[in-house]
Amino acid sequence: MSETPHSGLAERAAALDAADRLAGRRELFALDDGVYLDGNSLGALPVHVPDRVRDVLTRQWGELRIRSWDESGWWTAPERIGDRIAPLVGAAAGQVVVGDSTSVNVFKAVVAAGRLAGEGRDEILVDATTFPTDGYIAASAARLTGHRIVPVEPADVPAALGPRTAVVLLNHVDYRTGRLHDLPGLTGAVHAAGALVVWDLCHSAGALPVGLDEHGVDLAVGCTYKYLNGGPGSPAYLYVAERHQAAFDSPLPGWNSHADPFGMTPGYAPADGSVRGRVGTPDIVSMLTLEAALDVWDGVSVDAVRAKSLALTDFFLECVEAYAPAGRVTSVTPVAHAERGSQVALRCDDAEPVMRRLVERGVVGDLRRPDVLRFGFTPLYVGFADAERAARVLAEVLVLPREQAA
Ligand SMILES: Cc1ncc(COP(=O)(O)O)c(C=O)c1O
Questions:
Q1: Which residues, including other chains, have CB under 8 Å from residue 299's CB and lie 6 or more apart?
Q2: At the topology level of CATH, where does 50-297 sit?
Q3: pLDDT at 305 over 50
Q4: Do 5-30+300-399 and 50-297 fold alike per CATH?
Q5: I want to staple 221 with a disulfide (CB 3.0 to 4.6 A). Which of 105, 160, 192, 240 is the partner?
């Protein structure tokens, strides 16, 4: 440990918290006196949500019953809530629809993008470092549609593109390292090759500006249970750029995406707009839980969130450098702001017992086996004192004899 907690970092944390314009948002969340750095896995509960969900259950379902499909806005919830998420990912209204899991939306997006790319293009490039589900789903989609999967590191995508490329599936932020990939540059390169790009925003939406419309992204998917705090298993979303909607040919054309769902006709005719991305009956309770949770974003700018996120991760890295015994942990998260999401990932030989010890001491991060400690920084409810304390407790754990930590 090159410095002690008396090195001034705790005082700096206090000053940074005092100057933080987002600090007041923390009281909107149900948190205890521990340090919660796992919002990149499951966001914290906004305190107003249980009452809203109680109303959904007791009044909307309990009293209005079937009438709620209209009177409580259940039927239109997927598009309405999509429009609440849209500004957070830089999309104009009418392009985001909520529903299903990210995995299912990856399937819809990859198959539909392959169809949009047209004949003669038989390759789907997939981020070789992807969160596994995207790779599994893309592989199955490729088998169904006669495409070939080409695994490629995101930085190598421009060199791998060619006249055979149909679709490129990429993660905006790497789930393991927290590396932010160059969405504008890679999107431009994919388009220059005449292909379409699908971005997975699970680890960027709600943590940093995405700019889907600005950068001309074709399709995107993301979950809502991380930085959007929608709750465990809350529904995911699908973005289909307006220019692609008329030709978007869903591989899961369920009745909810029909132009006249209650016409109950045997023939399928797709609805216009983002509705075309729907499949079956929406998971209303989860969906309306998410809708309530999104209230915490009212009046918040994503740019302010990004500025705080970078300041928090910078400060945490500085505290780890100051407090942790030399050589015990190594950051695998890029130092450059342009390459960093909102988490810090530290490589550590004995990551599993170290994380267990941290959780016992009230600092909750998580682990990606075999050797990565992940610390997610959700700017709406994590402060600088949290970052300092997490680094200090980490250092305490790291000096314990390894056997004790095991
Ligand atoms: C990048 C990424 N994609 C997809 C998923 C999984 O999505 P789902 O379980 O909603 O299908 C995750 C989950 O953490 C993820 O991090």
A1: none
A2: Aspartate Aminotransferase; domain 2 (3.40.640)
A3: yes
A4: no
A5: 105
Q: How far apart are CA 116 and CA 193, in angstroms?
A: 14
Going from the C-alpha of 251 to that of each of 220, 283, 378, the distances in angstroms are: 16, 20, 35
CATH tag, 5-30+300-399: 3.90.1150.10
- What is the distance between the alpha carbons of residues 115 and 137, in angstroms, rounded to a whole number? 16
Collapse the DSSP code of 132 into the 3-class scheme (helix H, G, I; strand E, B; otherwise coil) and give the result.
Answer: helix
Q: What is the pLDDT of residues 2-11, one digit of tens each?
A: 445 557 999 9
Active-site residue identified among 108, 179, 226, 328: 226
- Residues at CB less than 6 angstroms from ligand 1: 101-103, 131, 133-134, 171, 175, 200, 202-203, 223, 236
What end-to-end distance do the CA atoms of the chain give, in Å?
A: 21
**131 noted as active-site residue:** yes
**Best of 100, 102, 290 for a ligand 1 pocket test (most atoms within 8 Å of beta carbon):** 102
Q: How does pLDDT run across 333-345, given as a tens digit for each residue?
A: 999 999 999 999 9
Q: What is the Å distance from ligand 1's center to 42 Cα?
A: 11
Indicate yes or no: pTM above 0.85. yes
Of 183, 208, 185, 177, which Cα lies nearest the Cα of 198?
183
For residue 374, indicate whether it is catalytic: yes
Distance 2 CA to ligand 1 centre (A): 38
175 is catalytic: no
Residue 4 is predicted with a pLDDT of 55
